[in-house]
Amino acid sequence: MSADIVARGLALQARTATVTANDLAAVRIAPTLNRIDTSGYTAIGAGSGTYVSDALADAALAAAHPIFCKQSLDGRYWRLLPDDAGLIPVACGGAVGFSGNPDPVLTTGHASFEASPWSNNLTCTSAGVPGPGAMGGDATIVTADVSNFALANQSFTGNCRITARVKAGTAEYFYLHAGPFCFFNLATGTIAVDGIGTGAIVSLGGGWYEVSATATVAGNVGFGLSSAISSFADIGDTATLFDFTITDTDVETTLATTDDRAVIRAAEAYRHAVGAAGLRFDARRYAARRVTLPGGTDYALATNYVLFDVRSSSIWKSAHPEGTTIYRRKANGQQCNAADFEVTTGYGANFRGAGIYIHGSLGSDPGASAHSFTLDNIMLDGGLRASMGLTFEILDKAIWQQNDHHCGHLTFKGKAGAIGFCSELVYTSAASPASAAKRYLTIGPDCVFGETGGSCLNPQGITLRVERCLCYNAYIGIEGWTGAAGGYLNAVFQDISFGSSIQGGVYSTPPANYYAPNAPVAGTLPVGKIDILLIRAQGFAIGSWIEGKITAIDCTVNIGSGSTFVSGSDMLDLDITTIADQGNVLAGLVLLGGASGAQTTRNCSIRLNCKRTAFAAAGGYKVSNAIYTYGSIGTNVRVELGALEGSVGPYSRAAALYDNAPLVLGFEYDGNTATANGYYDIQTNHNATIDLINAGPVIATSCTVGGSYNLNLPVTGIQAGHRLIIGDYTKNFVAGGAALRIPAGNFRAGKGIMLPPGYGHTELAFDGGLWTVIKPPPALAATAAWNPTSIASGAQTSTTVAAIGAVVGDAVEAGFSNDLQGLVLTAYVSAANTVTAVLANLTGGAVDLGSGTLTVAVKG
Q: What's the DSSP call for residue 484?
């Protein structure tokens, strides 16, 4: 009989005799066999594996890894073999996981309601309305249905918790039903329990409430409207529903009684010892309890307190068709909460174990393959949610490469990712910029990162290969670089409360400043490619050496953020579309400059569109300004304006612009003062642009209240036919404004013009040598009440009118609201900002005009 037949026969005998790997000590194995199959460690069919007796299987391996290396009754040692893919099945160590679903059935937003399995009777009467507070996404207006008052139904059996966020409409009550019912009165913010276990209602402000109830159910769970308790005669009445959640509390109990942490750690340690490729996870879900670090322990020595640590390259792969989730739980098995992560005393005293810690090496670089790590179709859930009000806990990282060591590639495939930690969800590290330049962060299109008080991604200089993953509900979306090899970032960043930043290249390559713009280095071209969608992702800052596409919904892109990129931005080529949806947006683009004389943000080419949805248009929302800027912008910054939907203001600044400003192309002034908002514009039409500041003239950084100053127009490097529009130039943050004067020497006609304080504008054209006026500016107008005294024949009287911006020598026209009765009215500028009006009587008799209004117009 051949050894193979004997091996199969022995394996069959083991299975029929329910022999498990743990029972090898009670089994005598024929000396001719060195390979056996078992039914598993804990039960028949769970963790079946293949064991071999060879030179590696000895007493030392069994002592170090007793779960995976065992001695049989005949005295031989047997070690677990990897599967055909080189993976160690964690089930062979007893990590059996569980199949229940602890995740809630959650539906948020109008689009999701229509596809939800429990919403077959949900009626939507609008295209969606804003959700409660700052929560993103549309709510939906629901109407009591004539055929079924229970508007949403999900079949469920067992113990559950149901919650919803709802705003009152015409219905007096709405109810959550789960066999019995729990009624909520949204007019009073109270509940009335009718047969259901417990209920709660909490105000979210603005008429919104968060409500919840628990019950034991054998039937449907859902949401409906009613006119009174125990009455469902509410056909046609409405309420607004933002989300609806059903949570299986029985599965939460399963989580609380399961802990696979020790076995998974043991499996990874065994994998490292025998040189296997990675671990295999067969179950849909696993639970792992964290171990709290003793107070005062140095966090750097705390690898025994992380959930799992990886000491060499490893692949963690799910073999379940739906993927695998590993849930972190508290030491007592309960769900984690924010209070568990509050700072106590001392740096590191509040260390709570983190997630997966990946060791690196020091000294010479062993190459990226030495310490690489892959999550394949596995989600790591830390148990926290950003809605808990998480604070940034620097040590609670989900995937953590050892700081300042040579680590390897990080790869996320399938439905992989990390959620529910306080700090960075992905934290990469390298011993040097040169080491980082050889590493990759690869993320697939189905990966998800979110629910964190820190950042979703922190790729510190290693090269990005990100394919449209989702980063959501976080303090920071991403902070880092695209990598020395260029790299690409295709991702969605949604509901980011603080901001994000992305820089081309790798840090300190060169210059030495950590955040300085990166110039090319030998053999590399560090231009990062981006295609990102921002949804309420506040303060996304773009650094240098980036090209690609950005779509921003209800948020704004920042170029040259001084707080992050201290030397501004350089070498950008971007298409940006900013869309208003749930409210007004400050600007399509924010350009942040430096102090006077500092050539900061430079060499940028940006195509900008400002749009709004139909919902925004109905609510009067828009992108308020195409560009918002302050400080000195460097040379060669060019913005081409495309669509400007909803009377977008062209250009806004928060402070003095100093000595450089961006080139802005494509804006046509519509004469609507409401769009100008008191800001100055240097714009053009017909895609021909002149920027007065970049073209050479030196502009004062400030001007006093009132008065005026001169500006000379450039005449070199300008093509004939170019047109220039100047509007609202001096009213920005200057009380009362000041007049802008363009002297006569600039014009073919030899006569200067004045643009007075206010909302007027003038249009000019260049004829190849000098400028001509296409549309004159409005006159500087001023009025005053005046009751001239009776004027005798041959006499005169005078008064003065304040006219901010007028200077001696300006031409003035004057008028009076009453009949002059033959008197002669003249006016002149008698002093800066002052016009004197004179009434002369040449009629031959006394004249008394009575009280009226004096009007003067200063023409410059």
A: T
DSSP structure string for 544-585: SSEEEEEEEESS-EEES-TTT-TT--EEEEEEEEEEESSS-E
Alpha-carbon distance of 437 to 516, in angstroms, equals 17
CB 800 within 8 A of CB 832: no
Q: What separation, in Å, do the N-terminal and C-terminal C-alpha atoms of the chain show?
A: 115
- Residue 731 is predicted with a pLDDT of 39
Contact status, residue 544 vs residue 564, Cβ threshold 8 Å? no
Identify the bridge partners of residue 209 per DSSP, sorted by sequence position.
166, 203
- The C-alpha atoms of residue 20 and residue 44 are separated, in whole angstroms, by 8
> CA 402, CA 400: separation in Å to the nearest integer?
6
pLDDT digits (tens, 9 = 90+) for 80-139: 999 999 999 999 888 878 776 666 666 666 555 655 555 555 555 555 677 787 566 677
Question: Residue 87 has what pLDDT?
Answer: 96
Per-residue pLDDT at 7: 37
Predicted pLDDT at 715 = 75
Distances in Å between the Cα of 230 and the Cα atoms of 172, 184, 227, 234, 314 are 12, 11, 9, 11, 59
Q: Which two tokens stand for residue 597?
A: 């004389």
Residue 740 near residue 754 (C-beta atoms within 8 A): yes
Task: Report the sign of the C-alpha dihedral through residues 707, 713, 714, 718, in that order.
Answer: positive
Dihedral of CA atoms 428, 434, 439, 441 in degrees, nearest 10, equals 50
Q: What are the CA-CA distances from residue 112 to residues 122, 322, 415, 801 (Å)?
A: 12, 21, 20, 65
Q: Write the Ramachandran bin of 721: left for phi over 0, alpha for psi from -120 to 50, otherwise beta.
A: left
Instruction: Identify the DSSP state of 492.
Output: E
Tell which residue, 292, 288, 294, has the closest CA to residue 308: 288
Contact 488, 511 (CB under 8 A): no
Q: Are 585 and 561 in contact (CB under 8 A)?
A: no
Q: How far is CA 406 from the centre of its chain?
A: 30
In this prediction, the residues of the chain whose per-residue pLDDT falls under 50 are 1-21, 44, 148, 297, 301, 344-350, 654-657, 669-705, 728-736
CA 739 – CA 734 distance, rounded (Å):
11
**CB hemisphere CA count around 740 (13 angstroms):** 27
Tokens of 695: 């073209």
pLDDT of residue 539: 86
- Distance of alpha carbon 334 from alpha carbon 328, whole angstroms: 9
Nearest CA among 663, 629, 666 for reference residue 644 = 666
What pTM does this model have? 0.76
Please write the tens of the pLDDT for every residue from 557-582.
999 876 778 778 888 999 999 999 88
Q: Find the length of the chain.
A: 860
